[in-house]
Design brief:
single chain; 3 helices; 10 strands; about 180 residues; alpha+beta; two-stranded antiparallel sheet; 6-stranded mixed beta sheet
Length: about 180
Amino acid sequence: MKTLLMAVALALTASLTQAQNVLVDADKKLNTDFGKYKTYAWASQVDSQLDPGLYFMNDLQLKRRIREAVAFALDGRGYQFNRQAPDLLVNFRVFEKPVTIQGYTGYGTTYFGTNEVRQPEDVTTFEAKAGSLVVNLVDTKTGQVVWRGLASGLTNANGFDRDENRIKQAVNLIFEKYGYRADKL
């Protein structure tokens, strides 16, 4: 019994150590009513096809694991999968090489005010390290990314860490930054 408890404690310590190595960040489009989003569907590149991009991981099993973890996160927040008329289009990318991604700076000069508006000069770029997972939620009516989550540090000695539990953990950490629900619980 003592040996079993020690093994469980070591496993928990190892998983917590791995979680600490993953850095997570998120950004959203300001003045977006997330309450209007109830359904989602996958972007075409997510739907089991290989992605011929220069910096992207081309691994169907990895895509399946990420897709399942993201679906679990969204379903758990009350979102419904709807291929025909979704409110949100879900896209994700796994970068095996460093890349520069466009995003936003800060929250502007009226952050604590009521009329926050981001200006074109608020746009900036940020570096995603090799081994980063980026999840984008796109409003299907406007075609704009309304929320983006990023997890970096998903590497091990062999490159990108494809471990199913590690992927679930990273996606869970990303969606901890997503404070919205479709079911208003």
